[in-house]
Amino acid sequence: MDGRVYRSSGVTLNWQIPAEANAQPEIQNLRWVWRCNSCGSNGIKIVMPTNCPHCGNNTSNLTTRRYLQPAGFAVDIRYKPHNDISMPQYISVLDPLISLGSSDWIPMPNAYYGRFRYTRQGHIFHHSNGLYGNGFALCLRCGLADSMIINTEIPTMLKHHKRLRGGRLNDGEMFCPGNDADWSILKNISLGVSTQTEIFELQLRDDHGQPLDKVTAYTLAIALRRALCQLLGIEENEIGTHAASSRNEQEQVAYSIYLYDNASGGAGYVSQAALLLPELFRKTASVLDCSRDCDSACQGCLLTYDTQHHLDDLNRHAAKLLLSGAYLNALDIPQHLKAFGSESHLELEPLVLAMNREWQRHEVVIVRIYLGGDSTYWEPLAWKLNDQLSRLNAEDKKLQFIVPESTLKTLSNSQKSELASLVTFINAELYSSESVSVANESNLPLIVEIGSNDFRGSWAASDEKALAPSSQWGSGEMGTQYVFCRKKELIPVQSKNWKKVKLSELNGVPSGFIQLVIGNEFDGASISFGERVWSLINKKVPEMDLLLNGSTKIKKIHYSDRYLCSPLTILLLHNLLSELVNFSVLEENTSLLIQTAKLGYSNINSPLKIYHDWIDGNDRKMIVTTWFEEFFKKFSWEEKSKFDLPHERKLEITWENGKLLTVILDQGVGSWKLSPAIKSQFPFQSSVEEQVKKLKILNALIESCNPLHSVNWYVLIKN
To answer: Which of 482, 490, 511, 663 is deepest in the core (most CB within 10 A)?
Structure first.
């Protein structure tokens, strides 16, 4: 700097002032980074993880390390700068950790050769473990830091050290106070930073169906980067690249190829790789043809400043062997997927993004969604398209759902009720058809049509199972491929064979049950949610009033709900069940069993709000168990696969005299949301104890998610 050489001797700390003068201060950016050696996932937590949030493996399969994201670097106040640059200190470069969260996978044009995905909200973690790979020793009092030579021994520089930037008495203060506090010197700390950007991930297989080895994967990553930059007309330093071990769809160890925008927040470069895939691979094959005909890699083909640390992982001949003529030809649309004839194009984006792409480019007045598939997988209120449908409704677009009559008949009462709620909420039209609608030149089922007077965009799916409205709709997770056609013509009018479905036909009362129609009766403070629920049930079902206020005790309680994923749903369920304490019908031996689905990948990579889903299933289980066991000593929490549980949300209470109360809850406790004015932050990254503490003191104002559509609960009491 200014012709002088300075040596950083530590970091600038971000302090949180402690409550007491002698208390241990906290640092805002001291966290844990983890990587699962089983599934390849990675992430960041404030507390040390005990298992992988994605595959559930315990700490024996986790690599964890505590790290600090420094606010800046500091030079010792006593350091004398010089101009001798002949002795630079070299710290080895470490590969970044890359995470795409829950982004949807899309099959390659020929699914045999692999899959890809991309996200605009990916995370890159860059870090350093010091000169010797053992991390740094760090003084939390002054910020002095030095590389650890031995794992357990504090470096000489931190023994009896002075303050990094001087004390109040400068050299009159002989030593830093951190020398005398057990907590102040941290060992084996990494320095790191996490940034958000656009990331493209590619998992390929060779002609024999085997995952790529590290050398082939890394070489392809570098060649793909150069090819993409040439196609986009940008410098190579705009895009970063990496190849790392992960798991493919068959749970085999595989190397993923990563391309990411170096600009923090993303620059829109690597997201174009999916749309250019066939052209990109052909360009990559030409990049691998070195003009110098080198043996593996040279400055003429693959060697650059940022590949110098991976010389052993570069071999252009291995990558060239993979990209044979047959391999490149397999990137074209297969004949059996040409649902729209010569105008068919393979859709290389998740369907939600593809629809967004088209209605941003063209005027759209009508959106027609074709539903169907196996009713087992229907989740209308968890449908991935719901947010987009709400936005389209707000823009006064005409929305239509077309469902085969045979599929409607197989839906459960709870699925029909959810479908009715969704149709009401987005102001859609629902029609039944005699059969599945297919694309005009094939037997492939139509899944979406959008258009206007002079534009028509149509998508067909490779499999009818893709028509089920679910959280995986429009993705390639099940190996489904999508075909797209764009035409300058009027979107077809609705068929005369379609019959409009009345919503009243979807709301049937189960035999023997009493229907409770709920509007805003349960709106109000969350702390009294249970009180309002049982008050209404007692009012509408007199026999229930006698049971709750009688002398007979409750023997067991069972609640089943697939969707207990967020702190808000747990808060409302706890208030509902703990209210039974006030009726004096619980006893020491009353058991409570809650069954729910295992957490899937969340659309929110960094949850912040109380209505966001937990990412770590173990956190959720420990929080729920800790809290509920205070009221129910015999508490059990069971997690199953989502589709091993019934779709309906059901509460069953059994009394010691054999009486059985069954309540079927339309949409469960998920029918209520926070009022807009309520602060909704929740400390997901904090410890289990802190999260339980937050839930205990939380009293939020809640209201119905859909004021225009009543919620139906059904009650039955059996002897």
So the answer is: 482
